[in-house]
Amino acid sequence: MSGGVYGGDEVGAVVFDIGSYSFRAGFAGEDTPKAEIPTHVGVLDDLEAAMDTDGCGGGLPDIGNITKKRYLIDTVYMKHPVKDMELSTFLKDGMVDNWDIFEKVMDYVYSRSIKSESNLHPALMSEPAWITKSKREQLSEIMFEKYNVPAFFLCKNPVLSAFANGRSTALILDSGATQTSAVPVCDGYVISQCIVKSPLAGDFVAAECKKLMEEMGIEIVAPYTIASKEAVADGQPPKWKKKENLNVTKSFHNYMVKDVLQDFAASVVQVSDTPYDQGQTDSMPTKLYEFPHGYNHDFGSERFKVCEGLFDPSFIKESGGNSMLGMGGVVASSIGMCDIDIRPSLYGSVICVGGNTLLEGFTDRLNRDLSNKTLPSMRLKVIAPSSSSERRFSSWIGGSILASLGAFQQMWVSKQEYEEGGKQSVERKCP
Amino acid sequence: MSAWDAYVTNMKAHGLQICGIFDLQGATWAKSAEFKVSAQEVANIVSGINSQSFPDGIHLNGVKYTVIQVSPNSVTAKCRNAPCDAEKYLMHAALCKTCVVLGGISGATERSATKIVEEIKDYLVNSNF
């Protein structure tokens, strides 16, 4: 029952990082993933397969068996409008929910991005800090039984993000697409009782942008519907022609509209340095944005209002805004739940990762909010990697670093250990 | 008590550097020679697991351990401030019906501690302890 040392320098490990916006995959030792695939897939009923199966003969048909589904994975296939194609995600709360779709995506990644057999490479997979025991066991079972990986390891996202930034003790503020979480990492271990989550993240900003557009009377036209358009002057009504014969599902349309809103948020939205003040933001320069259908407009103080809710939830108009925590609050409450001895080291390394943190002015505002919440004697340092790929892929990069370390090679759970110990062996060995 | 000593030898053979089996009040059934812990500290660990909270953290021989993970029947904790690096154990404690198994490793293979202690606990639970 010894741990055993697996592998050496030659065998390349693959690193998978599953997030609610995209799925990253690549080889350990490299500095960026080979593939970034959206975690939404197109689902189509496979009518040809359905016609081949025999009828059930009396009784109610079992829908799961009769209707086979075809999955369209990756940007090229799923963003093309197809009749009756629903877009859905296989994740829920950051954890895999629909295992069929997950297996199809893994097959796709192995054949198109990794371009190799799964049984040749040890696999390191990232997981959210709040993952449950049953999901881990099921994941290990699929990886060992279906993909026959020679060795496997699961590591929590915040730990990998900390490693990617050169630290083993830090507070990771991960603001992604669906949620923001503050997780303290101590000596490479997540302290699971002190995790604080908030739903205010990328999707929230996109929803606020949508409300702004509705208030301003701007129609969000997704690029797939546009047949032709003409250039118009600033503020003039747009002139464009719609494509004929488009027949798409609501989920597809909503996804494409969200795409436009995310692009708007990334280019125009800015976080103000101080809590929102109409007079101050009016004096800031405006930004011009051109929509897919040709309409262009200068945005002034609206672009600061949209994301103010991230830092000051009382700003959100609907009820329930007061009970949520802003970014500064999330960090402070997470550190507040920890042992008093480690708080200085956590405040001294607050690492911002995740796509949503790329909003202009995010880190400055966070710095200001946190210094207001802490004692003057506490040394506060907010670390934010400068390049966008380092922030979006920080857990993948951490995994790439970890899997290529010599000291890590004895920590893998090998197939032999799995066969002897059962599916709990991964769950137990990977804290 | 010699029957229990065989367990300790077994645990050490699997790689645990400090290990022991104690009853739920902290009295020792068997433990390895280097493992210094008081009965009160073990009793605190047991009550902490039962109430799922450790307001004062975990102490072994006066050294403070930071709690990493609490499960219904076990707790994992890591030592950050030991006199020397070799004593910075990753400690895992697992509750059986009438006893508690403690084990720790420090160094590169420290993560195996959780697995080994859980396996011993499974065996004891199956033998009705």
From TrEMBL, chain A:
Q: Which residues form the signal peptide?
A: none
Protein's job: Actins are highly conserved proteins that are involved in various types of cell motility and are ubiquitously expressed in all eukaryotic cells.
**Pfam hit, one:** Actin
Origin superkingdom: Eukaryota
* Matching InterPro entries: Actin (IPR004000), Actin_CS (IPR004001), ATPase_NBD (IPR043129)
UniProt cross-references to CDD domains, sorted A to Z: ASKHA_NBD_Arp4_ACTL6-like
Which protein family is named in the record?
Belongs to the actin family.
Designated name of the protein: Actin, cytoplasmic
What is the organism field in this record?
Plakobranchus ocellatus
Automatic annotation (TrEMBL), chain B:
Q: Where, per UniProt, does this protein localize? A: Cytoplasm, Cytoskeleton
Q: Which GO terms describe its molecular function?
A: actin monomer binding
Q: Which InterPro entries match?
A: PFN (IPR048278), PFN_euk (IPR005455), PFN_sf (IPR036140)
Check the record and name the SUPFAM superfamilies matching this protein. Answer: Profilin (actin-binding protein)
Coarsely, its chief localization is cytoplasm
Q: Which Pfam families match?
A: Profilin
Q: Does the keyword Cytoplasm apply?
A: yes
Does this entry carry the keyword Cytoplasm? yes
Q: Which UniProt keywords apply?
A: Actin-binding, Cytoplasm, Cytoskeleton
An example Gene Ontology CC term for this record:
cell cortex
Cross-referenced PANTHER family: PROFILIN (PTHR11604)
Q: Which family does it belong to?
A: Belongs to the profilin family.
The record's note on quaternary structure and interaction partners says:
Occurs in many kinds of cells as a complex with monomeric actin in a 1:1 ratio.
Give the protein name, as stated in the record.
Profilin
What organism is the protein native to? Answer: Plakobranchus ocellatus
